[in-house]
Amino acid sequence: MSSLIPTTDRWLSEARLASDGTLRTEEMVLNIGPQHPATHGVLRVVVTLDGERIVEATPVVGYMHRGHEKLFEQRDFRQITNLCSRMDWLSGLNNEIPAALAVERLMGLEVPRRATYLRVIIAETNRILNHLMFTGSFGLELGATTPVMYAFREREMLQKAMEMATGGRLHFGFIRPGGLKEDVPRGWVDTTLKGIRQLQRAIPDYEELLVGNEIFKARTVGVGILDPDLALEYGVSGPLLRGSGIPYDVRKAEPYLNYDEFDFDIPVGPHGDSFDRYWVLIQEMRESAKIVEQALMGLPSGSHIGQVPKRLTIPKGAIWAKAENPLGELGYYIISDGEAKPYRMKARTPSFNNISVVPHMLRGAYVPDMVAILGSMFFVVGDIDR
Amino acid sequence: MIAEALSNSYVQLGLKMSVLLILLPATLVLGWVELKIGAHMQARLGPMYPGGFHGWAQTLADGIKFVLKENIIPKNVDKAVFSMVPYVTMLGAALSFVVIPAGRNLVIEDLEVGVFYVLAASSVGVIGILMAGWASANKYSLLGALRAAAQLIAYELPLVLAVAAVAMMAGSLSLIDIVESQKQIEIAGFYIPFLPFQIVGFFVFLTAATAELTRPPFDMPVAEAELITGAFTEYTGIRFAFSVFAAEYIAMIGLAALGATLFLGGYAPPHRALDFVPGIVWLIAKTVTILFLLIWVRWTYPRLREDQLQKFAWKFLIPLSLVNILATGALKLTPWI
Question: Do A7 and B137 touch (CB under 8 A)?
């Protein structure tokens, strides 16, 4: 029999008893990723396991590095806004905004009021799309397959509105320095409003389906607590930071576009666990819907783009522009040497800073908790690696 | 002539075995039904194309795909154990049908200890999962298999205790006797099954059965999002189809049929006037009801954690079923029943 099953035999001989009579146990190194459903793509986490408990976890990034910052140096500023949307593919439009803002500030371009309003509406719609994706997929990771389907149903309505305005469903390429690519078509306001209303009706459903569910609470409450001080040390931002009780949001802290004209709140989770982060995400959808409603009601008429020269030449200098990406604070540092292309453009993406706290959050958690923690950290791998 | 042939024990054995052949097509039907029910619960359509009408041939096409796929055996696996797994899981799933009666005389083998046998047989599948996890030489598989073993400790006791209360009600371990005793209580011609008396037991049974089947919310051993189908990560093609899908669905039908027999009156019709309808019709109808409950739960809840299942089982299900047994005993001693 022993010759039949050689591996079993070998393992048995290795499992010797330790000197004090207890069974010798070993830690096991488990490679999670780069291909693993919990890592949303190609993040790799090397975890050391003691049974099912995680002793140590190290995220390994770089599997999707596409050299965006170098590519920026080869493109003029209209092309750069399009390239930006490829970093965080779930919220492409929000990536374009700070790039356009930087150029506008350096060149002193005037942006028409209508363009600013439309930017806010589309950016917030994009934020809702992103949040719906994460609320849905978080349920999927915990084993509930239904929320993601409901989320996609609501996404479809808003996706339609986005497609009407921009022509794209994922990479919109709609923002231009000085305004927008084109004006929105007829009927777009109604379509967007319809989508927002449908979402507002659906949000209580999501809350009932997961937030009120005992199993969901058992899996998320008290799991993956992120200490606010630690979060600040690592430069964590976005829903992850707000879930830990710090009400920092660029839209309120340093308003850009015309966010200061709208009435909205910053939802904050008190405990900093997975449940709070998920709850913050759902509440943020509510607030975004509120902003879109207000902006649609007050949408002024006028031009969609200001006076922009044919050739965008930025004066010499450097600028830092940031905005609230759905996943956190997104900023670009642009150094211009007076050419049509930037001399250097550095992107500060939220996901990169956010996942740097992974080792602290995973230590001591169980393997199933890892899924709940990573799922509630809301990162996009393209945004980490750029 | 025919009677003589039928009395031959080999012919009888062959006939009995052929009953088990129904299980594979039943798997395909159940798989399709689950796809459709799940889809409609999630506001989707589910399969619509294969075969024409509402994609009825979807699972058939899946089955053919599994047969045609390359059957990969990784280099470092324990080959003998690895390839034995589908047989063990299938066997564990199929054995329980031996004692489930579809009519007063329509049963493969009426064992005196039928309940005991069916509970023992349905646990064999876990050995298959353990073998798969051990032989695969894969860390994910090992974690999944150990979770399955740990899960066994959680669900097996409540399952037995829930069934014990039913055996107390009937005063017998034979499944036919259990069904017959559910025809004893009649109100205006309606047979009253054990369900109204054993509603707690039924809940415990369903919960434990879900855990035994490793279906959500207790699918930790095969959790796709963390362990990537756990013990069966390394399986492909027909081996995967048999050890995961066929075994799961057959075990599911088996436990649902057991639940129908124990709590819903099995082959007994709901009313005296319907006695002429063959018992198998009622058994199938009741089994399908329980199957629907299992499918419904699957598409609704997220997954628990292994330690939370242990807590749930030992701190809630087991005390609950002990109280249930106590109440059943009290019920049996009450003179007016």
Answer: yes
Read off the pLDDT of residues A165-183 as tens digits, 9 standing for 90 and up: 888 888 888 888 888 888 8
Contact A349, A8 (CB under 8 A): no
Instruction: List the single residue in A28, A150, A215 with the smallest CB-CB distance to B304.
Output: A215
B308 touches chain A (CB under 8 A): yes
Query: Which of B41, B135, B308 lies nearest to residue A146, judging by beta carbons?
Result: B41
B218 touches chain A (CB under 8 A): no
Å from A227 to nearest chain B CA?
A: 24
Size of interface A-B (CB pairs under 8 A): 92
Q: For B65-82, what is each residue's pLDDT tens digit?
A: 888 988 888 888 888 888
Interface of B with A in 259-288 (CB under 8 A): none
Q: What is the ipTM of this complex?
A: 0.73
Q: Return the residue of A nearest to B221 by Cα.
A: A368
Strand A175-176 versus strand A179-180 pairing type: antiparallel
Amino acid identity of residue A109, one-letter, is L
pTM attached to this predicted model? 0.81
- CA of residue A124 relative to chain centroid, distance: 13
Q: Which of B42, B138, B226 to mutate to test the interface with A (most CBs of A within 10 A)?
A: B226
- The residues, any chain, with a CB within 8 Å of residue B72's CB and separated by 6 or more, are B234, B236, B237
The answer to whether B286 and B229 are in contact (CB under 8 A) is no
Question: CA-nearest residue of chain A to B305?
Answer: A368
Distance CA B299, CA B311 (A): 23
Q: For residue A271, which phi and psi values (nearest 5 degrees)?
A: -100, -20
In the numeric block, the tokens 């009706």 are attached to A201
3-state secondary structure chain A: CCCCCHHHHHHHHHCCECCCCCECCCCEEEEECCCEHHHCECCEEEEEEECCEEEEEEEECCCCCCCHHHHHHCCCHHHHHHHHCCCCCCCHHHHHHHHHHHHHHHHCCCCCHHHHHHHHHHHHHHHHHHHHHHHHHHHHHCCCCHHHHHHHHHHHHHHHHHHHHHCCCCCCCCEECCEECCCCCCCHHHHHHHHHHHHHHHHHHHHHHHHCCHHHHHHHCCCCCCCHHHHHHCCCCCHHHHHCCCCCCHHHHCCCCCHHHCCCCCCCCCCCCHHHHHHHHHHHHHHHHHHHHHHHHCCCCCCCECCCCCCCCCCCEEEEEEEEECCEEEEEEEEECCCCCCCEEEEECHHHHHHCCHHHHHCCCEHHHHHHHHHCCCCCHHHHHC
What count of residues does chain B have? 337
Q: For the purposes of burial, counting CB atoms within 10 Å of the CB of B26, is it exposed (0-12), middle (13-18) or buried (19 or more)?
A: middle
Burial of A229 (0-12, 13-18, 19+ CB in 10 A): exposed
Q: Could you read off the pLDDT of B177-217 as tens digits, one per residue?
A: 888 888 888 888 788 888 888 888 899 999 988 888 888 78
Residue appearing with tokens 């992120």? A226
Find chain B residues with C-beta within 8 A of A37's C-beta: 224-225, 228
Q: Residue A158: what residue type? A: L
Closest CA to A385 of A61, A46, A34: A61
- The pLDDT of residue A15 is above 80: no
Is B52 in the A-facing interface, judged by CB distances under 8 Å?
A: no
Nearest residue of B to residue A223 by CA position? Answer: B305
Residues of chain A neighbouring B77 (CB-CB closer than 8 A): 7
CA distance readout (Å), B249 to A251, B56, B66, B148: 52, 17, 16, 17
